[in-house]
Write a structure and sequence with these properties.
Layout (H helix, E strand, L loop, with lengths): L2 H25 L2 H22 L5 H19 L3 H12 L11 H9 L6 H11 L5 H8 L3 H17 L12 H20 L11 H17 L4 H14 L25 H17 L5 H14 L8 H14 L3 H15 L1 H8 L8 H13 L3 H14 L3 H13 L2
Helix pairs in contact: 1-2, 1-3, 1-4, 1-5, 2-3, 3-4, 6-8, 6-9, 7-8, 9-10, 9-11, 10-11, 11-12, 11-13, 12-13, 13-14, 14-15, 15-16, 16-17, 17-18, 18-19
């Protein structure tokens, strides 16, 4: 990657959401903001290659995008009235609110309660996270065209319902937080196990952005257990990032990772958050239980020291909070360590997850452990077909080929 390409990639990573947020605030239209931002980054590819990277890429992108948005408004029917209305509504400074960060403000706007939960999450992943429709579709386990329509409908809903772009008050924050947390977790997961074609298997910029925004949300809602739980969960997963992919680009499983390469500071911070929530005595939510599961894993100095019975007990608690097939799948993986692969396989085979690569990968591993080589090879093949992460594909292919 040459210096211009690196600058473009860094600018998209750091400035996409900021540009969209600024344009949305000014013009009051997510569609205009997104289109202008996309056109601006396309223009930057040509202009920066010819003229060089500007001294302040963020300012260049924001200014160029604003001009493109104004040009679009002027081309539309009744453009002058619409243009004046947009400027009058959104150029005036608003009252001070609870949120100072532009991207976080956009995050809460996209998670407005007038939208269905799935629409909030999908729209925010696109507008704030900058993920493609294909990446978002993978997170939702749906087809890309369906996800594209979902995002479009969400933007249309905001326009038709005249949902304002404004900073939510402190009283509004608790009602918005569940959708925001779901968004942050999906953004984090896309970075942790990236699925985009041609992307790195781990996209640190996405995990870092999700953690940054989670810290900001925690600053706003310091007593919310699920906010603390999600932040702890992200920190404990992120602590293992350096040990997750080999030098040859292959996924390294939790049991095989070099635990000396884990980030001790992130683990300590995550464990502290988990302990603080336990000390309150309040019933934990989904993210807090997931954080506790990861705390058990990161407490073991060796994979053989993992307290799998405690992990299963925590998954039992999680199943009551979230009785989804994916949670049941992860519980079965822990059950295999306590009751054996045969019991776990019986539980896995009852799940309706044929389109999910991890389902087939789990079956493959359990079948391998049971000595069912032909069935295991077939399951590995199905997992490889469905997996989108390059490091995971490399790992699955090696495991399949080892079966002979």
């Amino acid at each position: 990657m040459n210096p211009v390409e690196e600058a473009l990639a860094r600018a998209h990573r750091e400035e996409w959401a900021r540009v969209v947020a600024v344009l949305t605030k000014r013009f009051g239209d997510l569609d205009i903001a997104e289109e202008a931002a996309a056109e601006t980054f396309a223009t930057a590819v040509e202009r920066w290659a010819a003229d060089g990277v500007p001294p302040n890429p963020g300012a260049w992108l924001t200014t160029t995008a604003a001009r493109k948005a104004i040009d679009r408004l002027r081309r539309e029917s009744k453009r002058e009235g619409k243009h004046r209305e947009a400027l009058l509504m959104h150029d005036e400074p608003g009252p001070a609110g609870a949120i100072g960060d532009e991207r976080l403000r956009l995050l809460f706007t996209c998670c407005h309660p007038a939208l269905a939960m799935e629409a909030r999450v999908a729209l925010t992943l696109r507008m704030v996270g900058g993920l493609t429709a294909a990446e978002i579709a993978n997170a939702f386990l749906v087809r890309e065209p369906a996800m594209g329509k979902r995002i479009t409908r969400a933007k249309d809903k905001i326009k038709a319902a005249r949902i304002p772009y404004r900073i939510p008050s402190a009283e509004d924050l608790p009602k918005r937080v569940s959708g925001v947390l779901a968004v942050l977790f999906l953004v984090f997961n896309e970075g942790y196990l990236a699925t985009g074609s041609g992307t790195d298997p781990v996209r640190q910029e996405l995990t870092a952005e999700a953690i940054r925004l989670a810290r900001l949300v925690r600053g706003l809602l310091p007593d919310d257990g699920e906010v603390a739980g999600l932040l702890a969960l992200m920190l404990l997963i992120e602590s293992r990032r350096a040990a997750r992919v080999s030098a040859t680009g292959e996924l390294i499983t939790l049991a095989e990772q070099d635990r000396g390469a884990w980030d001790a500071a992130l683990i300590a911070e995550g464990h502290q958050l988990v302990r603080e929530r336990l000390a309150t005595g309040a019933p934990p939510g989904r993210y807090q239980v997931l954080a506790a599961i990861n705390a058990v894993h990161t407490s073991a100095r060796d994979a053989r020291d993992t307290d799998w019975r405690q992990v299963v007990a925590l998954y039992d608690q999680l199943v009551r909070l979230d009785p989804s097939p994916i949670v049941a799948l992860n519980r079965a993986i822990a059950v295999a360590e306590v009751d054996g692969p045969e019991v776990a396989l019986a539980a896995v085979d009852r799940l309706d997850l044929a389109g999910y690569h991890a389902f087939h990968a789990t079956r493959a591993d359990l079948l391998r452990r049971l000595g069912l080589v032909r069935e295991a090879r077939s399951a590995y093949g199905e997992a490889i077909e469905l997996a989108g992460n390059t490091a995971e594909i490399a790992y699955l292919a090696r495991r399949r080929d080892q079966l002979g």
